[in-house]
Amino acid sequence: MKKLQNYNTKIILISGGSCSGKTSLSLLIKKELGKNKVNLISMDDYYFPKSHFKDKLNINWDVPEAYDLTKFKKDINMLLNGKEVKKNIFIYGKDVYKKEKENLYPKEFLIIEGIFSPYFEDIQKKAYKNIFLYSSKKIRYNRRREKDSKSISNFSEENLKKYWKKEIKEFEKKYLKKFKKGGKLIKTNNLENNQEKILQKIIKYINK
What we know:
The protein has a single domain (10-206), classed as Rossmann fold. It has 208 residues and is α/β, with parallel strands linked by helices. It has six helices and nine strands. The chain has a five-stranded parallel beta sheet, sandwiched between helices. It has helices at residues 22-33, 69-80, 121-126, 137-151, 157-182, 195-206; strands spanning 10-16, 38-42, 85-87, 90-91, 96-97, 102-104, 109-113, 127-134, 184-187.
């Protein structure tokens, strides 16, 4: 594969608990820094499709095993080495990939967002900035409920409550505190009403 221009890409990691504002803020950061300067990799696009799992009715999406971490790391390293990447696009709720792929080319910044964005220590060490978004569990649960009710055809709040108490709790106990220690803490409790202020705080930190 032909090597393209090497930008000495700066990695920006965006992590945080479920529905802490990672995707929303990452898109805003990309726009603020300049779309022509920024690639955005969302970890959601590296979920295995539903067909990958044996127990399709009880999938835990909040463990490393739910992701194709081999391709995730390969795509990141290809971009860092100046190569083009053809990235899958995952459809949340339907749990399949779109037929078309997204072409990414090396750029000045690479935003990597997702609950496991700091999972690989070598990538974490290369990061130019590491940001951890914090929202209370109650606020995040309400956001998750709204998101799932719009995206999942057979949405059940009873099932979400069970999932939140078990799988989300286990994820946070095992990983979240560790990721939180490594990143710049940005509070996003009032994200819906304070988006611009939070965004500018992050931009200031990135440009520091």
